[in-house]
Amino acid sequence: MAQLTTNAIVLRRADYRENDRMLMLFSPTHGRIEALARGCRRQKSPLMAASEVFCAGEYVLYASGERMTVVSCAVQDTFYPLRSDFERLAHGMYALELCAAAVQPEQENERLFLLLLRSLAHLTYSAIAPRRVTAVFLMGLVSLMGFRPQVGRCVACGMPIAPVVPAGKDRDAPIAAFSPERGGVLCTACGAGEPCRLNAAELDALQAIMRRGIKTLDEDAEISDALFDALRRMAEERMDAPIRSGRML
Ligand SMILES: [Zn+2]
Fold first, then answer.
1. Buried/exposed 191-203: b ≥16 CB within 10 Å, e otherwise
2. Ligand 1: distance of its center to the CA of 2 in Å?
3. Domains in the chain and their CATH numbers?
4. Is the pTM here over 0.90, yes or no?
5. pLDDT digits (tens, 9 = 90+) for 176-193
């Protein structure tokens, strides 16, 4: 029997018995944790906020045999305003579900934890288009899972691809393609049959995400529908479980 104090965020919850809930927590140091929040659905329960999805805080857990129980939680953020904007909420739920599929028990992943919290903070408190936030999250997630997207050279022939508008072409001319299956960009020759074409600005945005991660959200960029769908497929195909909340995006 032992006590564990860890930062964590609630990825999922399920009502249990009359007043309890089972929580799926994501801890940066202990990975995915299932924990019982006793009495949290009672009026005035001190665990009421701590047993809602998106709640991030310092959780004190008590382990007895196989079971973890929430003792207390110092709430840091509930991302509450997300609930007033359906589109932003859907992006937030999607990020939580991806983490639930990606994170394993007892697996340390501090960087993914921080990426998730920062992405949720942008979705909740900034005016940045939610699909840009999710695009950065998806690129970071697959990188941290060991499938780093290749965006500087063609994944088929290895030719370097620079985000430059070709002489005599307009700004929207495709200069590369993106393949979700291969997890990277293709030159125009290798990517002739790919549905997701990239113009110079989109390739530049992808390369910036790989260099600077979430800091690129300070700059202007656009993510087309085709590119957003391709990034989603790239991440979802690398998960063991189907990601259902993606349908709401
Ligand atoms: Zn090529």
1. beebebbbbbbbb
2. 55
3. 2-77 (2.40.50.140), 84-249 (1.20.1440.120)
4. yes
5. 999 999 999 999 999 999
